[in-house]
Amino acid sequence: MAGRSYWKGHLRLSLVSCAVALYPATGASSHLKCHTINRRTGNRINEEVVDSVTREPVPKEDRVKGCEIAKNELIPIEEEELQRIRLESTHTLNIESFVARAEVDERYLEKPYYLAPEDKVSREAFAVIRDAMREKGKAGLGRLVLARKERVALVEPFDKGMMVTLLRAADEVRSPTATFEEIADFEAPADMRELAAQLIERNTGVFDPSRFEDRYELALAALVQSKAKSASKIGTQVAVGDDAEPPPSNVVSLMEALKRSIRDDKTSPSAAKAADQPDREKAKPSRGAATAAAAKTRVKRPAPALRKAG
């Protein structure tokens, strides 16, 4: 079941439109939540909104937006004034043009969302737009307003629905010229490239983001659990094992580093597992033999445990 939508409106392509809802494609709900507290009492700290000059607290009804036109010169903008200038894209994602997906510079991609039809009536028009883009291999470019800011978005087919990716503005992406201009032109020797290619080949696999855990987050969670078990949580010092990788040893040359990397890679558990894989494949019994063996020895397996929702 879909979670709470982030935005609701209409997806429009010329005269074809349908009601849609936008859902976050990413989240950080599993992260450990930390707050600023008073070290002496352990209580959370509340931050107060105060006037920068008088230092007096400012109630919510007296807070308005102020747009800076010069240093220390702010123009107040009321809520009613903001409502009068709202754009059509506040509630409409209008696809204005189409591009080949491969032509979109990855540097402009900022944040992805899922797009789904809002009701049963909208499913047909939604499917028409989605399938037409899929058949043509194109992605749409449109605009919508999120958090009172008009954003350019890339719309493309994704699974049964669509994916909407917010794009950075042209002036938000920096040119690489200043960063790369001091890199001297250099063509690596063939023998070094060959060794590097071997390392790449041996460590090539399928993209599996679950393999990469946030080790700092895990260490922080372990630290919190250790302190939670202690008698006094405030001011308690807990020794935590140092699992940091040792600094790299001194290497005579780049060629020597590549050679050592090849030797270390051969003795690593992952390399041994990869080397053992072909032998296991050969040792696998044929489908008929496996079926016969299974018939002779039938083991009653326990039913899989049901995972509790939520």
Protein traits:
310 residues; Ku70, Chain: A, Domain 2; 7-stranded mixed β-barrel; 8 helices
How is the secondary structure organized here?
Elements (H helix, E strand, L loop, with lengths): L6 E7 L2 E9 L40 E6 L2 E5 L1 H6 L7 E9 L8 E9 L5 H14 L1 E9 L2 E10 L2 E7 L9 H4 L9 H13 L12 H15 L24 H14 L1 H15 L3 H10 L14
Parallel strand pairs: 1-5
Antiparallel strand pairs: 1-2, 2-6, 3-4, 5-7, 6-9, 7-8, 8-9
Helix pairs in contact: 4-6
Briefly say what this structure is.
With 310 residues, the chain is α+β, with helices and mostly antiparallel strands.
Describe this structure in words.
The chain has 8 helices and 9 strands. It is extended. It has helices at 79-84, 123-136, 177-180, 190-202, 215-229, 254-267, 269-283, 287-296; strands at 7-13, 16-24, 65-70, 73-77, 92-100, 109-117, 138-146, 149-158, 161-167. The chain is an alpha+beta fold. Among the domains are: 7-26 and 85-171, Ku70, Chain: A, Domain 2 (Beta Barrel), CATH 2.40.290; 189-200 and 254-272, no CATH class. Strand 7 (138-146) and strand 8 (149-158) form a beta hairpin. The strands form 2 sheets. Strands 1-2-6-9-8-7-5 form a 7-stranded mixed barrel. A two-stranded antiparallel ribbon has the order 3-4. The longest helix is centred in the last third of the chain and has 15 residues, at 215-229. Mean pLDDT is 81; it is low at 277-310. Helix 4 (190-202) packs parallel to helix 6 (254-267).
